[in-house]
């Protein structure tokens, strides 16, 4: 029984290099094994803080992405009509000269005529800077249609958020509430965490209309109706208040619950925090007087009405909060009737989380010092944690629902304590962070700040003298004032409508706006080719950068082919979207593992090349010579935002001995390559929790340049900042919304979170469209670029509309029947499958499996285009018209987050149920 | 007819935790990648970018919905959808989704080996791993008929039978760091639901895990004595104890309570 050829000790390959994965947004460390110059095997890097050696299906399938036949291979210039996919191959010199000519003309005329949007980009530290150098305000990445509600609500409430800004305390939490689709971000860290949590016997509660993925292993699944999470959470809050299950000491130490709020209806100071002459916030104390609310060793009161020295009345913020949530709107029975979770369950869950928070308190014997200089012998924790992401975000009520989740955490004393949600450095760095969006151009044509940032007051908005939007996507306007990630989903429709402006060039990177990233996909594809009366395209020029033949390529006038992630330099910077975890700050690089075998160039290099050709100030030396002839690799090392602050925090200083800040180090990339392509700085033990008010943490954070000072960062139960917008809408202040926006701003800029029905529900006939429809991507494709991957498509190459068996029965449907899914937008004909783990009033499908016939180098009869489908076709990018006919974006009124999951549909059996009938799309509205 | 070793020194195998498997397919793709470029590869794909993409996989994940017992099918709601959406659907415990990774179980009595006419399929005496020597395989497929678990994959392109090797080319590999001497699927698993070791040694970590979690063999009644074990989903915890439940059932009428006044006397300190 010999097995002659069996070799037990064969090396994997002849070389191995460490770099960073880019198959999704998780950014795990990988070890790439090479053999005979080809990629042989990609494994998770065990040393890496993100994934600790594990690797997901996408990561392993990266090898097929790297060698995909759908890779573009040469710059392309459109020769036929736009949308026909007729191109001629051109050389890079011609392509870049042409792009530079187009963009140069724009920059001389009006830089805002360039709309530069970068999709799933993870190099916004570069692309945002480039837009600023170019001078356009019209820049953003894809957050507007992804999860900006979550990010913005977190940043404006506690200076952190889930995923890139915070995480559950996987080591200590005893109860994790996971809301909505959560498989989308931070995939491997969450999976690692769930494994640990279940091993420890902690409870996992999934609140999600669909039971798949993480919800499948949950101890308990609550099939909630989409868009009603705010009612459920509000009802939990009411229960906690009724039973006095509230950590009041936490509230007055770390939040503004005790701050006095002026009650002066109709006046300019109504709802603002009462302050002393030096602008310090005030509270009322047991001493019977107003004292500085930020003082220590005081005994503040959290209820009552008090008269300030100047005679004005004021109440503590907590009282306003309690009044809001003790109202009948948030009674368990009221919530139960709408969210599909019965009242007894709501009451039980409230009792469970209170029990965990207060009866199962954790005490870690770690001494620490707070920002006020007081020493504590231990760290006290409330081992209840929350996680939410896109499921909560993708609704028009998402911002307030996310904010409500954070207030629930506050009541439980469960923000950055042992066992609870924890911040990830460099956050918290301000509530919200200090940087505001750029508004005006300097003499050299550059914008005065990066185009994205945090609006702090109405004065920061990008509106014209009449209060109308300045940005092409209407972000930072009165329609969506806190649109901190921009609104990529609105760009094409607005540009074609010329509302608020026409643009010259749409410059897209890695954003599939011609397909699954667009709302109203059919309409969007028509708009991209729409012409004026004079025969010119309404969007005169489209430059598209992608590594693959996606559905958007055919709409480009100029295609600049990108490399794969294994062929270029990249930077995962703390200035961008950090990969830190709660116990350490981290950043990382990618570097070329393989040389391209096609005539392609890394987008980041191309952008710097274009910047040099355009003579953007930051791309030139003082003598006018190119600043970064070495491309992005040189930029990563040498570029400084402020003296000593660059894209990478590791091995700074001439000698590479500094961390966080320091002079550029010419050997920096070598050091990264020697250290697994990442840098990792552990938070000191005494700084592990209470980061918002922990001196040990904040001093460490300051030493690395994350924060400017060691001051407490106050968590905002009550948002005075939102109230300032409301006051503006009520006619106060220097900058006020135009008349037609006032009612909306006044309603949605409530300083306390509240639940309201998703917009679409209020405006359509719910009897005709009774069913909620949502999507998610499967874990093996989430956030991945190209589900045409040869291995991943063997797992799933088509999708179904999943429906609860009872719902199916009531509609006389069986597995594999075809149905029409109809919304006011149009209808699509798709196959159904029954799924018990679906809330009966909801249908759902896997998103982005459906492909356009002929795209991604798939054969014309590929299931992705024959049976696969997108719900996007029946999701409108606009809301039904207002009384005056104006149509708002189908988005959150605070942040501009695309309200994908507000969709309501009607399901009808398609008369002919023949198998193999392909999917059909019929769109009513162009 | 191929003979089995009378005993094996070790019984190497996998322990797969169905409690934490989220069905992410990481193990399956890592397996495909490792073996594609290794000595047991390639694992050919048919129609990789076409109408019916199929290929050889040594490990596949199946997802099932399991309806807890006690709810007869006819108790399900009936009537027009509009009505159901308003009045509610028939009460039933929500279905559980179980993700089930399937690969060769490296049976102690594998018929897939004994039916092999050429000796290509064999079970190693030293560790119990069931392998195929492709040089001897004639592609007759008898072994795949013999395996009740569907663990064998025939490659049309190569004309040979392929299957899980338990990464025999990794687990002893002296060119690897010690920590890398594990099957690719185990190294990849993001929830750490997969464990590798000697199930013949009662003191091994995997054997202890099986004992502790009441791990089970798949369809042992068939008599093939599989070595791999599955750990069942842990009992789901719908509550955190009776106290919490009792607390929640206290009836509190907000109208009767003066909650705001109640908090007047809170002695708080900053």
Task: Report on the architecture of this protein.
- The complex is a heterodimer of chains A (926) and B (270).
- Chain A contains 26 helices and 35 strands.
- By secondary structure, chain A is of the alpha/beta class.
- Among the domains of chain A are: 76-149 and 436-559, Rossmann fold (3-Layer(aba) Sandwich); 718-751, no CATH class; 759-923, Beta Barrel (Barwin-like endoglucanases), CATH 2.40.40.
- In chain A, the strands form 10 sheets. Chain A has a 7-stranded mixed beta sheet with strand order 5-4-25-24-23-6-7, sandwiched between helices. A 6-stranded mixed β-barrel of chain A has the order 29-33-30-32-31-34.
- The mean pLDDT of chain A is 95.
- With 270 residues, chain B is α+β, with helices and mostly antiparallel strands.
- Chain B has a single domain, classed as Alpha-Beta Plaits (2-Layer Sandwich).
- In chain B, 21% of the residues lie in helices and 17% in strands.
- Chain B contains 9 helices and 11 strands.
- In chain B, strand 8 (153-155) and strand 9 form a beta hairpin.
- The longest helix of chain B is centred in the first third of the chain and has 11 residues, at 26-36.
- The interface between A and B is large, with 123 and 103 residues.
| DSSP helical segment count of chain B | 9
Q: What structural category arises from helix and sheet content of chain B?
A: alpha+beta
> Count of DSSP helices of chain A?
26
Shape of chain A: globular
The third-level CATH topology of the domain at 76-149 and 436-559 in chain A is Rossmann fold
Work out the largest interface and the residue count of each chain. Answer: A-B, 123 and 103 residues
User: What fraction of the residues of chain B are assigned to beta strands by DSSP?
Assistant: 15-25%
A few lines on this structure:
The complex is a heterodimer of chains A (926) and B (270). Chain A is an alpha/beta fold. Chain A has a seven-stranded mixed sheet, with helices on both faces.
